[in-house]
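FIELD: query
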Amino acid sequence: MNRPMIKNTFLGLFVVVALLAVGVAAGLWWERNYVPGGGMDIPADSASGGPAVMYWYDPMFPTQKFDKPGKSPFMDMELVPKYADGGGDASTIKIDPSVSQNLGVRLATVTRTTVNPSIQATGIVEFNERDIAIVQARTGGFVERVASLAPNDVIQSGAFIAELLVPEWAAVQQEYLALRALDNTSLEGAARERMRLSGMPESLIRAVASSGKIRNRVSITAPRSGVIQTLDVRPGMTLMAGQTLARINGISTVWLDVAVPETQAGLVRVGQTVEAAFAAFPGKPVQGRVTALLPTLNGEARALRVRVELPNKDGRLRPGLTAQVSLQGGTGEPALRVPTEAVIRTGRRAIVIVAEAEGRFRPVEVVLGAESGNDTVILSGLDEGQMIVASGQFLIDSEASLQGITARAAGMEPAMPTPVALHEADAVIDEITESAVTLTHGPFKTLAMPGMTMEFTLANPSLAKNLKKGDRVRAGVRESDDGLVVEKLVKSGGAK
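FIELD: result
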């Protein structure tokens, strides 16, 4: 090989090596500047002037936030950065206006108006238990005749029920007539009182005195109009004094047993005006009033039982009829209100999505008051004039949850913490420090969470005392805004 050829070969190799070095350097630069976790921590504000990274999170556990990138302690995946969005903060989510339009996002304004919440409930007509008459035999005797009646018949006041023969009255009346013939006023008065004490009605005493004849038969009549609930008299029966013959329930007024949801029970008061609409009588509502708040709840419906008294002069309201009841509650004071459809109820709290400038949305926890028509009263959490999302808020709330954004109470008074039940599972300790523990645990059934290996924060450093790697424990965790926190570690067996 001649010298020029050797020189050209070395020159070619030098060029190749130089190009490889440049490529490696460029790759390292790209990795360090554009690949998450690529050999260095991603800075909070990139050198290229891009958006700042506020924190990193695991999309499967978005409420757990981390101050640097890396592997998720929960799942086998990289943490995802959460960027600031041009003036926003960690509690807002930004959505492009065109996307919001495609999602059907509709806004509403928080207003302050006078609220008279209307309670809508269902009631069932019952007898007025205060309007009852008991028909009894005032003396012993025999049943001669009985009217053609049966239970549930409607009768009028004074209607004939039965005729009784009372043999004892014949002797008492004969004695009275004999003493009256002696023209002795004191003896006549004593005999008249004896007839009265024997159970003889005043009308029969007057009839004996005026006619001068023995009358030992008496007619039993209805003391009031109403429905015969029981009828225990038949021809030929022998009766004893005080025996009940019939029970009559008046129907001039009836009761309406109304089931008011327990969430609205505080709006009901005695004396409140009620309007009851019956399907059997369309267009003819009946006005009544609340007479009592019963001490027991309707266990099946979890509702307050309210007794309403309704007039029933024409007798058309019969027990068993159902009615749609409207009660006007509240004090008529101004209050903040939002469309009911704008409220997201999670079971533990209520959330409203507040719309801010430049397409940013913020989930806010609110305290709800009573409902009034299509609106709901807001006791705290919002201000008058704020714009909120009335339609499409569930999609925004879901996106906020995926990004680890949790609703915060805006302007609320601090409340006492609510005790949260622990979710428990058996586990084995893989690593443990004063602040954290890594567990290989079984399923947390109450969380619907399968068994896996993951790191938890310890609520108290004392939980790690006398525990070491390999110990079998019973772990109890609770949900918090920062993820699952271990509040219980009880040794349950030997090392594995």
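FIELD: remark
The chain has six helices and 32 strands.
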